[in-house]
């Protein structure tokens, strides 16, 4: 019997997750079809495919650049999905592009009840971004459109009536290279897709900074490995003008062998073995980040829309904040045990983007686009892409962190 996971306020610390690293795309699709309804988008001209789950907010679960027998790039929590059981806090089903709403923590938090302590025991992912299915309103061979409407109440007691419109599109190879602002590079296979996400104020009251604002938050979960390094290009310049280069204390300090901060780029370990998170403010963000798995020669690029000169972003730190709209435009998370001996959520690593805070009058909308491109192939070809898009070579990426790849 296929599972529907409908309308329950529950989510999961999914302890014994088995990631899909090493599985083929066909293996993952066959597994998913045994347990829930999924839709596959494919471009007949290429071997690029993605699989999407309407029951889980229209998230892109995984993708491939090489057809059914090709590598599957997304992290999928097979243990949780096969169990058919909802878990407390968050249901970490997996997925390369999932729709969330921020902020997570702070006085306007959506993940904590009023007056609750900001700790893992009291953290709760709202059902509309965890277990609730979204409606499919249109489908073509390469696109899926979804919508949903729901209410969210923040830590301060403000209720938001939210309408969501989400479009997922598989891009052609030509469109992918256009997005990278490059001519096609030989000896590279790729898959590219994007989600266009819109939230609208469906209520009768304006959303204001005084009572809290929300934002679109897109998160992608990927298979970790000891050879994976996350790369975040940043704007160089003085902190007096652009603010700190990054926020890195979401879950405590990050050891120096896992994080390297340079003037124009940040390197972060994506091995899924140490729970940590970094964030980049909108003045530093270049609206792009990526990762490179040196062992498997896979370069992943994430691009997103970022309005120029907009600096109000919700702050998701787990504490009452002095600057609740001084948050991040992009984040990256590396999973690991939340405490010694505890089970991790995954493991996986994430690359994330956020829209600005949505100060919306009734009937007004805000839109955010998030694009993911996986490239695999000859190292020299991937190096050319990394240099152009991320501003660093593969050799620089591989040597950035003091650990063995």
Please describe what this structure looks like.
With 405 residues, the protein is mainly beta. The chain has a single domain (25-398), classed as Beta-galactosidase, Chain A, domain 5 (Distorted Sandwich). The chain is 11% helix and 31% strand. It is built from six helices and 18 strands. The protein has helices at residues 25-35, 78-83, 173-180, 239-242, 379-389, 394-398, and strands spanning 39-42, 49-53, 59-64, 98-102, 135-139, 143-153, 159-171, 188-201, 215-222, 228-233, 259-261, 265-269, 276-280, 288-293, 298-304, 330-334, 349-354, 365-377. The chain has a ten-stranded antiparallel β-sheet. A hairpin with a 3-residue loop joins strand 5 (135-139) and strand 6 (143-153).
